[in-house]
Specification:
Helices cover 63% and strands 0% of the residues. The chain is mainly α and 319 residues long. It has a domain of 188 residues. This is (spotted green pufferfish) hypothetical protein.
């Protein structure tokens, strides 16, 4: 009379392998990629801690280096949450969306901290000056606020309008294009800041020339990657390819900074020459005003890394 009443459950999988069973074609390899980069970034973070220990012992652990360490540490946390999310997803095909969102938020925080550090270094903060001018601080605050708001809009847009079935890339949205525009604006600011710093401190070329060259590539890598992803990569392969490229770009940026700031006497690119204990003296200098913000001229600080058996007479005459 009433016909059949059936309850059934369908489980569609891609084979029986843990690495592919619950993943779609565009997600193959993401978990393995994230695990690999997690290990590498963790090593980068540990190395930065070791360098920081050496820098602190020589009173050269400046704010900008601490920002780099923060960016690297947050990147590690981001990758950890992503790995946990994809691991759970590989197990049950569902995962925890909150873990994925948290991972993305931390990834964005790491990027923003690193970007701010680059602009500050370009302006000479902790390299040629003890602090940023009031107007410069206001501009930076406004810019970073706009950047953060745009990121928030991107997250909201992704949550509300992205259809997972369409396999859309995060930058393929108005907010994503806005982020690319802000990135290019940051590069223009970065260029101007570096040129001004070099004009007043030409002896800092060993640091600023490789710094500017390598991070010019980094600034353009993100917009170029986004454009290629949007128009050149098939949708079925987009997520896994973009994930690997994006992490590779971040790793490039961190390794370059680690290399040019390594505390070694052989490092001719080392940026810092004023000790952290001297900054307070400079800021309280009787000269006052803008003059007190600027560091004394010095090529680079690697002379402080001479062995203990070698006396460094230049330190006797430092401020």
């Amino acid at each position: 009379g009433d016909g059949l009443q059936l309850e059934y459950e369908m489980k569609l999988t891609n084979g029986q392998s843990f690495w592919t069973q619950h993943f779609s074609a565009d997600e193959f390899g993401i978990l393995e990629t994230d695990i690999t980069f997690l290990v590498i970034f963790f090593m980068v973070f540990l190395l930065s801690c070791y360098f920081a220990y050496n820098l602190k012992g020589r009173q050269l652990l400046h704010t900008t280096y601490k920002m780099f360490m923060m960016a690297a540490g947050v990147e590690v946390l981001s990758l950890l949450f992503h790995c946990v999310y994809w691991g759970l997803y590989a197990r049950d095909g569902v995962g925890s969306s909150s873990l994925k969102i948290l991972g993305k938020l931390l990834f964005s925080v790491s990027f923003l901290v690193f970007l701010l550090m680059l602009i500050l270094l370009g302006k000479g903060f902790t390299v040629t000056r003890a602090r940023i001018s009031h107007s410069g601080s206001v501009k930076l605050s406004i810019y970073m606020t706009i950047y953060t708001i745009t990121y928030v809009i991107l997250f909201i847009y992704e949550a509300e309008f992205f259809d997972p079935g369409e396999v859309l890339y995060a930058y393929d949205s108005p907010a994503g294009y806005g982020l690319m525009g802000l990135q290019l604006l940051a590069y223009v600011w970065f260029c101007y800041a570096v040129l001004v710093s070099l004009k007043h401190y030409p002896e800092k070329q060993p640091f600023y020339v490789p710094f500017f060259t390598t991070y010019t590539l980094w600034f353009f890598a993100v917009p170029v990657m986004a454009l290629i992803a949007n128009f050149g990569i098939p949708r079925w392969a987009r997520e896994k390819i973009v994930n690997g490229i994006q992490l590779g770009i971040h790793l490039y940026a961190h390794i370059v900074f680690l290399a040019i700031t390594r505390p070694s006497a052989a490092n001719k690119n080392f940026p810092y020459h004023v000790r952290t204990s001297q900054i307070g003296i400079l800021l309280s200098s009787p000269k006052g005003g803008e003059g007190a913000e600027s560091f004394p001229h010095h090529a680079y600080g690697n002379s402080t890394f001479l062995g203990d058996s070698q006396p460094n007479f230049t330190e006797l005459f430092s401020i």
